[in-house]
Amino acid sequence: MALLALYWSIMIVFYLIASRLRRYADRFVFVDRLMSLSVFALVFVMGLRMGANREITSSLRTIGTQAVLATVLIVAFAMLGATLVRKLLHINKRAYPISDSAAQEDIQVSGGQKLDASGTKTSLIIFLMVVIGMLFGCFLIPRITADVDAFEAASGNWIVIGLCIMLVFVGFSMGLSGNLRKVLQGAGPGVLLVPVFSVAGSLLGGAVYALLSPLSVREGLAIGAGFGWYTMAPGMISGAGYEIAGAVSFLHNVLRETLGIILLPLLSEKFGCIEAITVPGTAAMDVCLPIVERSCTPPTIAYSFTTGVASCLACAVLVPLIMSV
Question: Of 2, 60, 114, 163, which has the most beta carbons under 10 Å away?
Fold first, then answer.
C-alpha cells in the first residue's frame, strides 16, 4: 500500500505541474514517445527477472499446461463479466456512454495524441521485449552473477524506479490534456460494477477450470482468486497443504500479469478497453496504468485503478477464506 500511495502521489504531482503548462502543450509532444520507451524498458526488466527466476522456468516444464488452461478460462470469464457490465450500462468499447460515442471518439488523449491505432504493433513490441528479457535472464544473468537472489532484489528495485518514471509521464500527459475531469465523469457506476463482475468472473473461471482438471473446486477457486498476485496467493495455497495447486497458482498468476501487460493494447482494440483492463488483475492499478493511458481512453484509467484495487483486496480476503472452508 505504501508503494501504491507513492505511485499515485507522483502521478498527481506531475498532473498538477503539467496543468499549469497546458498553453505550451505543443512543446511537449515528445512525452508520449518517452512514455512508450519507458514501458518497453520496464517490461524488458520484468522479462529479465522472470528468466532469472528458476522457480518460474522450472514450472514451465512441469505444470505449464495446467497453468495455461487455468489462465485462459479465468481471463475469459473475467472479460465476460466486464462485457456484461458494458451492456448493462450501455457503454461502448472505448468506455464511453453509447449516446456520446460519436463525440467522444474525437477526444484526444496523451497530450494531444490520438488513441493508439495499432494495438497489435504495441502488443508485439511488448511481447518481444518480454521474450528477449527472459532469454537474457535465463542464459546471461547466471553467467554474470551467481547470487540470483541479489539480482532479483536489485531488479525489483529497478522495476519500482521504472514504474515511478512511467507514472511521471502519465501524470504529465494527463495534466497537459486536462483529462482528469473526463476520467471521473466518464466512468460512472461502472467503476464499482466492473471490479465486482471481474472478480466474480475470475472465480467462476477457476471453478470451471477445476471441473476440467484433477484439482478440486476449492483449489480451482483459490487459483482464480489470485488475480495475478503471484507473491501472495501461491504461498497461502501451498501453506494450506495444496502443493500442486500452489505451483499452478504461481505460474498462472505470473502468466495473467504478463499476458495482461503484453496483450492489453491488442485486447482493448479487438474487444474493448474495459474488457482489456480485467486481464492483468492486481497489476491494473499500477504497472498497467501507463499502458492503459497509452492505448485506451481517459475513463478507462478509473476502471483500471478500481479493478486493480478490488482484485488486490479480494485476493487477500478470499484465498485464505477459501482455503479454510
Answer: 163
Helical segments of the chain, H only: 2-19, 30-52, 54-62, 64-89, 101-104, 119-139, 141-144, 148-177, 180-187, 190-211, 217-224, 233-239, 243-270, 273-277, 289-295, 298-324
Distance from C-alpha of 145 to C-alpha of 190, rounded to nearest angstrom: 48
Angle 148-177/2-19 helices, nearest 10 degrees? Answer: 30
- Mind spelling out the 3-state secondary structure of 112-159? CECCCCCHHHHHHHHHHHHHHHHHHHHHCHHHHCCCHHHHHHHHHHHH
pLDDT in tens, 145-163: 878 788 888 888 887 888 7
Q: What is the pLDDT of residues 166-187, one digit of tens each?
A: 778 877 877 887 655 555 555 5
